[in-house]
Amino acid sequence: MSTTRPCSPGDRGPESETAVAAAPADQGVSAAAGSQGRQVRRLSLNGASGIVPLARDFARQALQAWGWLPAAGADQRAAAEDVLLVVSELVTNACLHAEGPDELWISSDSKVLRIEVSDRGPGQPAPRTPHRAGRPGGHGMFIVQRLCLDWGVVRTPGVAGKTVWAELSAPV
Predict the structure, then answer these.
(1) CB 123 within 8 A of CB 146
(2) What DSSP designation does 36 have?
(3) Residues near 66 by Cβ (< 8 Å), separated by ≥ 6?
(4) To 5 degrees, how large is the angle CA 168–CA 140–CA 81?
């Protein structure tokens, strides 16, 4: 987890939030081009069923729209699979350890893809320590830590819950 900052350089910031808020939403889904060529997509998960497959399908559609899929080569295919795995892990953690996820944000520019999952849970995600490969369960944040450039948690004072974010390199 990032220990030096609550959010990363790829943080979507106020310009992208405004662009997404102004974009037309279709059943909880919105998409917009943010500042400096950043593409942003948002999926409302509040009250949805089949949340993990829904989130993966949403992420897969975003990757297709942004040209990551279908993959041109093995490296691009592996990068896309890493994104889908991280989405699954973050959404699953919100289902198991929070009160379920509220929203999934995915944004991308030419260098970094950022995933954000917001929930209302008070817990603090952390990789299991010590990590033991043969032990079932509890590997989600270890996987996120290994696959991502950085990850962290953002809390808004006076508001219940948190946003867990993770960033991966865009394929070259």
Answers:
(1) no
(2) G
(3) 39, 108
(4) 45
Closest CA relative to residue 147, chosen from 116, 115, 169: 169
Here the tokens at position 21 are: 């808020």
Q: From start to end of 20-140, where are the E strands?
A: 29-33, 39-44, 101-108, 112-119
Model confidence pLDDT, tens digit, residues 137-170: 778 898 999 999 999 999 999 999 999 999 999 8
User: How far is residue 121's CA from residue 105's CA, in Å, rounded to a whole number?
Assistant: 17
Instruction: Give the C-alpha distances (Å, rounded to integers) separating 128 from 119, 142, 149.
Output: 20, 7, 18
Residue with tokens 């043969």: 134
| Whole-model pTM over 0.90 | no
